[in-house]
Design a protein that fits this description.
Length: 375
């Protein structure tokens, strides 16, 4: 069968068009990956603001089931209540929290020194504990050259300038770190409030960017993602509050110092599944060692009980309809994002995986329905 010249020309044009579109797609995907890699911290910051907006919107919707008020007024009530609770904790227990935080920091430092000494007595190399420790290096240099220390009673001008420059450099780093942390907090707060104030506006804008032929499917996916994140965040807030209260009361009964601040850190770290619970338990046990082995063993038993309460009671009941992700899959994804993107990836791994799971389940359901119709 002969093919006309017109058909051959059309086939070549179609092939050239397919190659061009494929090349543009590959280049665009590579550019998107590079953009995500270089601006990952900013993207995670925006995503954290979106999560805060989803949480505020979920609490606003829950309030709407009780009282019939406009959305803006209900959001104002929610924000005022949350601000009042935070202000009450700060003003009523601010001094106690600061004191407990200082005591906890000193206790953990002393226990780390004790753990290091214990490991050294048992023949385990602990040189990695001294990495980046300027005091250790300064002490070693002082003991190594005692003659120089006795010869020069007064430091030279170069030493004074070097020490002054180091102090200024460390001060600037601390100041910039504080400004960055405070700035990130207000950015997340502002984004959360703006997203929660007009959720429909941002939803319509997001759908407007989707091609018209895929807009119906995108609407279903976005709505399911919003519902899933809302259910998960409400369940997570309740779980964090329960872990905080049980840890605080349990450690107070055991007689552990800084029980309130330990309860706060345990509740906050509950937001990070698996890894957060392990870190919180390690901090609790280290802080309890100062009160003796009996207190440490009691604190460890309390940690196991709280972890069982969270894993086998609260999470199955509260998040039964929110997320169903296998623990090994979640832990592997957490480790991957934590290694690649640091603390942001570790903290936001679960909501990102929830979004991916909603999309995968939607496409699998559509594919199954299409196969059933074809059969």
């Amino acid at each position: 069968m002969t093919v006309s010249a017109h058909d051959r020309l059309r086939a070549r044009n179609d092939l050239a068009w397919a190659i061009s579109v494929g090349g543009i797609g590959i280049v665009a995907f590579a550019a998107l990956l590079m953009f995500t890699w270089y601006f990952a911290a900013t993207l995670f910051l925006i995503f954290a603001g979106m999560l805060l907006g989803v949480a505020l919107n979920a609490m606003t919707n829950m309030l709407g089931r009780v009282v019939r008020l406009p959305h803006s007024l209900r959001l104002t009530i929610v924000c005022v209540v949350l601000a009042g609770l935070l202000s009450g904790v700060v003003f009523l227990g601010g001094a106690s929290i600061a004191q407990q935080a200082a005591v906890l920091s000193n206790t953990i430092k002393s226990q780390l020194v004790g753990v290091k000494a214990f490991l050294e007595r048992n023949g385990i190399d602990t040189s990695y504990f001294d990495l980046g420790n300027p005091s250790a290096s300064a002490a070693s240099s002082t003991t190594a050259t005692p003659a120089a220390a006795t010869t020069h009673n007064l430091p030279s001008a170069g030493a004074i300038a070097s020490s002054g420059g180091a102090i200024v450099s460390q001060t600037l780093k601390l100041l910039l770190g504080t400004v960055s942390a405070v700035g990130n907090f207000f950015i997340v707060l502002f984004l959360g409030l703006t997203f929660a104030a007009q959720p429909s506006v941002y939803r319509k804008g997001l759908l407007f960017m989707v091609p018209a032929q895929h807009r119906a499917r995108a609407t279903v996916i976005i709505d399911r993602i919003g519902e899933t994140l809302e259910r998960w965040l409400i369940a997570q807030i309740i779980t964090m509050a329960a872990v905080f209260v049980v840890t605080w009361i349990g450690l107070s009964l055991i007689g552990i110092q800084s029980s309130f601040i330990l309860g706060i850190q345990a509740g906050l770290l509950t937001f990070i599944p698996t890894v957060g619970a392990l870190v919180a338990g390690l901090i609790v046990v280290l802080a309890s060692l100062a009160s003796g082995w009996v207190a440490a063993a009691s604190a460890f038993a309390l940690f196991l009980g709280i972890h069982a309460l969270e894993s086998y009671i609260l999470t199955p009941i509260l998040q039964r309809q929110a997320l169903e992700i296998p623990p090994a899959t979640l832990f592997a994804f957490q480790i991957l994002l934590g290694v690649v993107f640091g603390i942001w990836g570790l903290a936001l791994a679960l909501p990102l995986m929830a979004i991916a799971k909603v999309m995968i389940d939607h496409f699998k359901a559509n594919e199954a329905s299409a196969d059933a119709l074809a059969a």
